[in-house]
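Support request from a user on the community tier.

User writes: "When I paste my C-alpha cells into the form, the page sometimes reloads and wipes my input. The last time it worked, I copied everything first. Here is what I submitted, just in case something in the input itself triggers the reload:"
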C-alpha cells in the first residue's frame, strides 16, 4: 500500500486534462500496488471519469508485465547472485525443487491458484522461469486468468463508483478509504484460503 495516496492524487489530477495519461498512471499504480489501485481506478470509471475498458486494460497489462519480470528473473535463477535474490523472494532451497516439479506437471493449477491467492504467486512465477517453462505456454495461462481477475476487480470498483458518483465529486478521499477497505478484505480472504488449504493438506498427510 506504499504510495497509494500519491497514486490516487495523481489519478485525480490527471483525469480532467489527460485521460490517457491517467490510464498510464493506473498501469504504474497497478504494477506497484496491485488490486487496490485497480479497484480505486474502477471507482472513477463508475463515476464517469474514465472508460472502464481502459482501466481493465491498464490493470491487465501491468499485471502481465509484472508476472513476466518474475518469470524472466527465474530463467536466470541459476546464477549465484540471483539465486540468493530468489530465496529472499520466497523461492528457498526447500521449495525450489518441489515448485519447479509442480509447474512442469500442473502449470494451469499453479497459475490459477496464484492468481486467486496472491500469496505464493511470486515464488510460483519464479519457479516457472527456473523450470524453463516455455514463455508462450506461460502467457497462454497468465493472460486469460489475469483478464478474468482484473475484470472482477474492475467490476467491484465500478459498481462502487456508480453508486457513489455524487459523493466522489465532493469527497474524493472516499476512493482512498474504499480502496484500502477492499485491499484489507482481499488480504483477509487470501489468508483464510491459505489457512484452509494448509489444514486440508496437513489432514491429508496424516
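"...and here is what came back when it finally went through:"
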Amino acid at each position: 500500500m506504499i504510495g497509494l495516496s500519491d497514486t490516487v492524487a495523481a489519478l485525480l489530477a490527471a483525469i480532467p486534462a489527460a485521460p490517457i495519461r491517467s490510464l498510464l498512471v493506473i498501469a504504474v499504480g497497478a504494477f506497484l500496488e496491485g488490486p487496490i489501485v485497480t479497484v480505486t481506478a474502477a471507482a472513477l470509471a463508475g463515476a464517469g471519469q474514465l472508460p472502464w475498458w481502459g482501466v481493465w486494460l491498464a490493470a491487465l497489462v501491468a499485471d502481465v508485465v509484472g508476472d513476466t519480470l518474475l518469470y524472466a528473473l527465474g530463467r536466470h535463477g541459476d546464477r549465484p547472485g540471483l539465486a540468493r535474490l530468489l530465496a529472499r523472494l520466497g523461492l528457498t532451497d526447500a521449495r525450489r525443487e518441489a515448485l519447479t516439479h509442480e509447474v512442469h506437471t500442473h502449470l494451469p493449477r499453479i497459475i490459477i491458484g496464484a492468481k486467486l491467492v496472491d500469496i505464493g504467486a511470486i515464488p510460483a512465477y519464479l519457479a516457472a522461469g527456473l523450470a524453463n517453462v516455455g514463455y508462450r505456454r506461460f502467457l497462454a495461462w497468465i493472460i486469460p486468468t489475469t483478464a478474468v481477475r482484473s475484470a472482477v476487480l474492475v467490476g467491484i470498483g465500478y459498481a462502487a463508483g456508480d453508486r457513489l458518483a455524487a459523493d466522489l465529486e465532493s469527497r474524493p478521499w472516499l476512493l482512498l478509504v474504499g480502496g484500502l477497505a477492499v485491499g484489507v478484505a482481499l488480504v483477509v480472504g487470501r489468508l483464510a484460503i491459505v489457512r484452509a488449504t494448509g489444514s486440508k493438506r496437513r489432514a491429508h498427510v496424516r
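Agent notes: The reload is a front-end session timeout and is unrelated to the input. The chain is about 85% helix and 0% strand. The two ends are 39 Å apart (CA to CA). Escalated to web team.
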